[in-house]
Amino acid sequence: VPDNEVLAVVALQENERCNGSGYPHALKHEGIHPYAEIVGMADRFDAMIRTRPYRARLSPSAAVQQFFLSERENFPVPLLKILTEQISFYPIGTKVRLNTGEVGVVVKSHPKFPMRPVVRLFRASEAIGSNEIDRSVLLDLAKNTLLHISEVVPEGEADAAAQSR
Question: Which end of the chain has fewer beta carbons closer than 10 Å to its terminal beta carbon, N or C?
Answer without folding.
Answer: N
